[in-house]
Please model this.
Amino acid sequence: MKNLKQWKFRIAFGCLALGALCILPVSAQDAPDVGPHPAQPLKPMESHIGTVTGHAKGGKMDYRRYCAGCHGDLGDGNGENTPWLDPRPRDFTIATFKCRSTPTGTLPTDQDLFNTIGRGVTNSNMPVWNSFSDQQRADLVAYIKIFSPRWEKEKAGEPIKIPAEPPVTIESIAHGKALFTKLECWKCHGPEGKGDGPSAATLTDSKDQPIRPYDFSSGRDDSRFKCGSTNQDIYKIFMTGVDGTPMPSFADTIQPNDAWDLVHFLRTLQVHRHSKENDVLKAAGGKIPPYVEKPSEAPSQPSNGAAGGGK
Amino acid sequence: MRTSNPCIAVAIVILYPALMFAGTISGKVIFTGTPVKQKPISMAKEPSCEKQHSTPITTETVVTGANNTLENVVVYISAGADDASAPAQAVTFTQKGCQYIPHVIALHTGQELHVVNGDQTSHNIHPMAKTNPEWNKSQPPGSPPIVQKFDNPEFISVKCQIHPWMHGWFAVLKTNHYSITGDGGAFTLPNLPPGKYTVTAWHEDYGTQTQDVTVTGNETKSVDFSFKAKAY
Model:
């Protein structure tokens, strides 16, 4: 019996070693320079992150070695791993990006792309690439620009302005909740933010792939949002929209301070997460009071017709 | 004053032949075969919209009229006419009763588009553009129109994901010579100077067809399109 077990072990080990022999020579050296290539010569795209300047030329080998497996040699999101991935890898040829600091429909800043590479994308197969140096990441940001002509024709959008965060109060949470209802966030995210709203099951992204709305309630203390976990990151999400997905931009419809109230409410949907918002809610008895519109906040109605009749 | 008169005179001399011999291409779009049955839409999840409809609502992927005529076909001059600039007036696309009115709009590249919310509910307007930048904006009731432009010609599918049955199209064209077939499947493309034109008919489900037409003078050329209905 013991002998048989040993043999089994030996066979298993042998298979592994053989497998490793087949894989190692490919992954240990630079990706072979075969397969479809982007247009040659390489477009001299650049990126600027702080004092670091990235060059497409510098990012080529890293891209082909670490990124092309999913994002594809041609940047179209059709790498050899793609059929097994959900959500699908980003298609750089259309230059639509989820995590931006810029308005919906515009190109992200170099810093936005740089941050995404370093942060990874929660709930997807995009890992945290914190093994790369800043220079490597900057070069990769420059490299992915070769795949869409939009980078030659357009500039990145102007980052949205985020005012300083006001203190969390039970009133701001209550107002945020009123906005969550009024702006129909719950239609997808559900009344309790569990991602189970009436339209949730019907959602698809812009490539007709099924997509789920974010479930706020599932996250614990280490919960991460796709595009960053600070309150500022949440503010950005709904003011810029998540392009390529059903999540729209509310920049035209939410006033900056109201947006902070919404952020404060969204934090309370993360019921398992420790946050200052949940502390305020707990101190107020754990219940969000109904929102009462303050008279001073309402647009003042002119008491007589003459006040509104100016030219 | 003295300089403006010769200008007008010159303009008339240049425009005169065009005005005099402005031809028209008109016709009808029909289908053969049996179109797929349109699916009923339930707006039960949006009572404020449901109560605006007294008759059952269906999808509008294929809308037909009497005598096998086909509606919502964009017929336009795809070659031959000069790429005129965008008209100054905006094209309006309205959300009413959780439907897009009209289902298909056409506009020139660079022309202003006004998206209006006539409902008591929030919509999100999400044109699934591929060659134009893709944007997605929320529009609560009572908000001002969303004003946008598209720079590249493209047929853009438009969705509202809050109300998943809402679906429409923006036909962004490089010409002002277009016509969208309505009841009766008829289209008219007037004010065409003499010349050779390519007329394209586009339908969201049945695809595109083209025909070459030569307009020689002050005449009306008749051109009909026939699409084969898809069985599914």
Notes: Chain B touches chain A at residues 45, 121-122, 124-126, 128, 130, 133-140, 143, 146, 159, 161-164 (CB under 8 Å). Chain B has a mean pLDDT of 91. Chain B has two helices and 21 strands.
